[in-house]
Amino acid sequence: MTTLITGVSGTVGSRFARRMLDRHEPFRVLVRTEEQATRWWDAGVEVLFGDLRDPGVAERAVERVSAVVHIAAAFRGVPDAEAWAVNRDATIALAEAAAKEGVGRFVLTSTTLTYGPGRGRPNVEDDELRPSGAYPESKREAELALRAMPDLGLRIVRLAFVYGEGDPHLKNSLRWAARWPAHQRLHLVHHADASQGLYLALHTEGIDGGVYNIADDAPVTAWELHAVNGERYPVSNDQELADPWEGIASTARARRDLGYRPIYPTLYTAIAAGAL
């Protein structure tokens, strides 16, 4: 089975592609520049150049592949129009091309931000999606569009907040965590576990149409986020927290259907292992 992987220039996509390479599984990567291609050429990977927003690229990308793992996304710091063009429009175009080509399996990388406000409990995959903001809203619209496509072999993976080696996301989280109550929590997932979740979604049989939250076992508080980043929590911790479950996702379905078990079940496990 040859797999098309998009988004390999990003932190999640590059780790997932490396996982596939380590397991000697054939795949093709879609990149936009020669600089992005070099590491994959050196590893003997098939490289295709193009931008999914351009006409004809999606069709070329899915030629003679058996599966797609679509990780490419536009999020923090991009204009809203770009987020919609990449996360919704280009994703739909790729899925339509895959369906037309007869690609039997399509893994869509999404986000737990699509759940929106808290529900007084962990978010589960069948919850109504009520996001706010161009990134999660465009991801929701892509999910809905792809779920309406027959014979796509769709599997949706909703990732929690991703962090890991060489990734500034954990430090960047302080931009908003500094305004949170000290006990408000952020649900994390290490790169290694994001890759694991995508890999399991790709290879598990009999789960077409399935949606899976991928996260670790112990969300961390705003106070902890500051502490692990070597920063002092900047505001009083007597703020109220409307819903302590806001942003928290259940991984029970992924554990049951995919056999998912976090490699780094907590941020502190990753720190102890030197995986930051």
List the helices and strands and how they pair.
Elements: E1 3-6, H1 11-22, E2 27-31, H2 34-42, E3 46-49, H3 57-61, E4 67-70, H4 80-101, E5 105-111, H5 134-147, E6 154-159, E7 161-163, H6 169-172, H7 174-177, E8 185-186, E9 188-190, H8 191-203, E10 210-214, E11 220-221, H9 222-228, H10 252-258, H11 267-272
Parallel strand pairs: 1-2, 1-4, 2-3, 4-5, 5-6, 6-10, 7-9
Antiparallel strand pairs: 8-11
How would you portray this structure in words?
By secondary structure, this protein is an alpha/beta fold. The protein has one domain: NAD(P)-binding Rossmann-like Domain (Rossmann fold), CATH 3.40.50.720. The chain has helices at 11-22, 34-42, 57-61, 80-101, 134-147, 169-172, 174-177, 191-203, 222-228, 252-258, 267-272, and strands spanning 3-6, 27-31, 46-49, 67-70, 105-111, 154-159, 161-163, 185-186, 188-190, 210-214, 220-221. The strands form 3 sheets. A 7-stranded parallel β-sheet has the order 3-2-1-4-5-6-10, with helices on both faces. Helix 1 crosses helix 8 (191-203) and helix 4 runs parallel beside helix 5 (134-147). It is globular and about 55 Å long. The mean pLDDT is 95.
According to DSSP, the number of beta strands is 11
Task: Kindly provide the name of the CATH class.
Answer: Alpha Beta
**Mean model confidence by pLDDT:** 95
Q: What integer value in Å does the Rg equal?
A: 18 Å
Q: Helical content, roughly? A: 25-40%
Tally of helical segments: 11
Largest sheet: 7 strands, parallel
Strand content: 15-25%
What's the CATH architecture?
3-Layer(aba) Sandwich
Summed up, the domain count is 1
What's the N-to-C terminus distance? 32 Å
List the uncertain runs: none
User: Which of globular, elongated, flat, extended, rod-shaped describes the shape?
Assistant: globular
**Can you say what the CATH homologous superfamily is?**
NAD(P)-binding Rossmann-like Domain
Which class best fits the helix and strand makeup? alpha/beta
> At the third CATH level, what is the topology name?
Rossmann fold
Order of helices and strands: EHEHEHEHEHEEHHEEHEEHHH
